[in-house]
Amino acid sequence: MTVLSDATLVLPVGVVQGGWVAVSAGEITAVGGPERSRPRDPDVVDLGGRWIVPGFVDLHVHGGGGQDYGGARPDTAGAITALHRAHGTTTSLASLTTAPLDEMVRSAAALADLVDAGTLTGIHAEGPFLSPAHAGEQDPAAMLGPDPDALDRLVRAGRGHLRVLTLAPELPGALELVKRAVEQGVQVAIGHTGASYERTLAAIEAGASLATHLFHAQPGPTQREPGAVGALLEHPDVTVQLIADGVHLHDALLSMVFRLCGAERVALVTDAMAAAGAGDGRYRLGGREVEVRGGVALVEGTGAIAGSTLTQDAALRRTVDAGVPVAEAVTALTSTPARALGLGHRIGALVPGFTADLLVLGPGLEIDGVMVSGAWHRAPR
Ligand SMILES: [Zn+2]
């Protein structure tokens, strides 16, 4: 057993100073505050007031460290996961950008192997049923109209590990596809869309439950047309993804969405591409050339903002700097995305019986330690 003592804990009930967490056999076995005597154990790590928070959960990430999940080789995928883990992400989906269907099917099959091997938690297909008019960094030429056979091919290739599908609800046949995906255990996220408010609500009623990077690659609301953004913000059953990098989203909107939706409905994602953790330069994202300058990724020739170079520890700091309380920002990085994945009963909170995925953070919320399933990936100094 390991006991981490004298820590500032972010618990489901709020922030507790002078707390401790006991870990054994890969699980959190007990959690307490200063009033509760901690188990006596030779292996006590005194954290001197530093934070302990649950490990982060990323619902939307394409790559990092110079690599892209689209290639889906075990060594490169392992390197991507390791890069983000060093920045606090202990549970991750791998996001596939829109590509020709055969290529997406091949990538999904390769990623499913990596889920079986424990490298990843699941797969997110960002497309191919998206609106070419709102392609953003995605390749409009590879986009398809909603097609049950194409969906079934992706689901079969994923062997139960395709967890999220992003689609545009205004496409003909999209509502039937939402139902079909949900029936097969795939959560539907609305994104890369120009759908109306009413059409978006219809997709939510059909079973869609997530918003892919809200505000990005979709028109904003106007006084007469709340649009997809209005419906996704409003509906209590929807979890909205935000990219808190100060580039995709203004800090004022970031904190406003927390006030409007509550942290229980906000998932802070990275949407990171290969350049995350790899510096400026030229990269491929899906099939497209992307140039990164000053940490901002732009699609060659279009100037569109591509995926981010964000990591989740930086998203935490940015969100707190935007005025969101630490406990709420942590909720949006941990329990909210864990629940969105149907894993809220075993990850995303410092609760006895949960997997011991946790982070030690310094006073500036920088990563000091990363524990995955009870083993230090990086031990705190
Ligand atoms: Zn993406």
Automatic annotation (TrEMBL):
Q: Which residues form a coiled coil?
A: none
Query: Do you know which PANTHER family this protein is assigned to?
Result: N-ACETYLGLUCOSAMINE-6-PHOSPHATE DEACETYLASE
Q: Which Pfam families match?
A: Amidohydro_1
Q: What is the lineage of its organism?
A: Bacteria, Bacillati, Actinomycetota, Actinomycetes, Cryptosporangiales
- Recorded protein name is N-acetylglucosamine-6-phosphate deacetylase
Q: Which InterPro entries does its entry note?
A: Amidohydro-rel, GlcNAc_6-P_deAcase, Metal-dep_hydrolase_composite, Metal_Hydrolase
- Organism expressing this protein natively: Cryptosporangium japonicum
Which family does this protein fall into? Belongs to the metallo-dependent hydrolases superfamily. NagA family.
Ranges for domain Amidohydrolase-related: 51-375
Keyword line: Carbohydrate metabolism, Hydrolase, Metal-binding
Q: Output the SUPFAM superfamilies linked to this UniProt entry.
A: Composite domain of metallo-dependent hydrolases, Metallo-dependent hydrolases
